Amino acid sequence: MTGFSAETLTFLANLSSNNTREWFQANRSDYERFVKKPSKVFADQLAQELATTLDMPIAYKLFRINRDLRFSKDKTPYNCHIHLSLFEDKTTGTRPAWMLGLEPGKLTFGAGLMALSSPELSKWREAVAGSAGPELANILAGLKSQGCRIPEPELKRIPAPYSDDNQMSDLLKRKSLTVWTETDQVDDVFGTSGPRNCLHRLEPFDGLLKWVRTNL
Fold it and tell me: Model's pTM, two decimal places?
């Protein structure tokens, strides 16, 4: 097994056009062969590459192909993409993540903090309002200049006790921080070289993740 291939994307494209349980069950063997098993191989190898590069244990989560329909008006049963997150394998402390998404015609990479708990949020605000804030702002400005996308803050107003004119207002209004980039060069993930190619694609986020590990 060598990871993802063109057949992976063909299956996802066909699933997008036939997103029913009947079609999926009739084509389950292709799902197992071209999506499920290659996803595990790819994730194992990318986690190992990250662990070796960063000299830390790395765990990962592959998101299920079954959609959570409980609160969705869209009742199509399956996701037509592959989503993977990787993170430092530890039980305490803030765990920044690397993210990867694959679908026909698009390969997405991301990194950051998906959601901060209340204790983590307090520590985050202390860090960005203090001497470490300008460093993070510069890192994010550099990523934006490279074409990365940063979602808007979740809060409309700066939380107390910080003043409305705080220079780190954008960061203080955040309850998470993720940075994303996309490419149409989906064949980067194919074959045995796919994990190493994607490791290089994640390198621009190194400064952000180093800041998180140092300050949170």
Answer: 0.93
